[in-house]
Amino acid sequence: MNNKMNNKMNNKMISVNQRDYAWPRQPLVVVCIDGSEPGGEGSDQGGYIERAIDAGQTPFLASLRENATFGYADCVVPSFTNPNNLSIVTGVPPSEHGICGNFYYDTENDVEVMMNDPSLLRAPTILAKFNQAGAKVAVITAKDKLRRLLGVGLDITGGSAVCFSSELADQATLPEHGVEGIVDRVGMPVPDVYSAELSEFVFAASVVLMESIRPDIMYLSTTDYIQHKHAPGTPVANAFYAMMDQYLVKLDAMGVTIALTADHGMKAKHAPTGEPNVIYLEPLLGEAGLTDFRVILPITDPYVVHHGALGGFATIYLDNDSDHARARAAFDGVPGIETVLTRNEACNVFGLPADRIGDLVVISTRDYVLGSAPEKHDLSGLKDPLRSHGGLSEQRVPFIVNRCLEACATGRRNFDIFSHTLNHAPEGSS
């Protein structure tokens, strides 16, 4: 590309979901660090990144805290993986893109649905719009559940986009994923889905792709396996962030703009004995005399071993309008319940799609999680004290860029990361 064409592209703006984004002046890598509980006010054990920095494990991130942009933002509620990843890549809340959980109840068809089908997405992604405008785009996810959603609209067959997961990296093909032989190129075996290596493969592959095809925009999404099992500052957690730090150094050395955020935080949800603090909603509704209801836990996905499908946000469907007040009253004074909202209240407060949540939304406090009924949760896989997310207490997330942003530091959302970085980051400086 000649200088004249470079200048033309550098001045180009792409409009996506009523927001404008400047063309990247150097490659942009946005990283969603799944479950990366931040430090600062209200943090659990001082936050993962901050504790790793203080332990001397992450010198690159330490340099960003001193010399670049190192702040915080709020994520989407419910503070779960799917709604937040899709908010990040669309730049808008779930009320616009439609993905309001990992799992929801389709009332029209009377079926409970995993929200990983591209047909459920109601808004185009920033990734797709830039790709369609001529940018090379790469998406690497840890779990395959997100790959299809994040890859909507990418021109895979045209050769200008790559989209694959660590989980199924050995199955990646040129026609479907835009890449082949990635396992051999990365030099790592396909990791177990419940492992830190699943995220490490994401970072290792990002370096390989940046060295080989140099995408204009790259989106990386990790897994929160470590964060569910290990608190900030523990040796295993620090080792995870030390691993990440080493790959970020390599990307930074290639002149890449790096932007880090998270889909949600993570809090301890257990008693001093190690037993999980669970509020089961179905028995409470039954004790209130209710029989016609359905409890949906949007944290549910195919990978529940490390959290037992227990999170801080639940939605309740009621068959009879007359039961609404009685159902809401069933939770009055229950320790561990932070708030109960009607559908309209929840949509207004959190920006949720009204047709994909129940009549009531229940949110637990910082130390508790919500379940449906004891017999419906297999907790045999919880070998460590429960850590989970979903509520307001896990809304705060990191917002870190290896550039000094010119944008206002207040009122940030995690889904502002593309806008702030593309529109307000000076080129090649930190």
Q: How far is the first residue's CA from the last residue's CA?
A: 26 Å
Second rung of CATH, namely the architecture of the largest domain: 3-Layer(aba) Sandwich
Please state roughly what percent of the residues sit in beta strands, choosing from under 5%, 5-15%, 15-25%, 25-35%, 35-45% or over 45%.
15-25%
Relative helix content: 25-40%
Query: CATH H-level name of the largest domain... which superfamily?
Result: Alkaline Phosphatase, subunit A
Average pLDDT level: 93
Low-confidence stretches: 1-7
SS summary, helix count = 16
CATH topology of the largest domain: Alkaline Phosphatase, subunit A
Tally of structural domains: 2
Name of the top-level CATH class of the largest domain: Alpha Beta
The spatial strand order of the largest sheet comes to: 4-19-10-3-9-7-8
- The count of β-strands is 19
Backbone CA Rg? 21 Å
Structural class: alpha/beta
Main beta-sheet strand count, sense and barrel state? 7 strands, mixed
Shape descriptor reads: globular
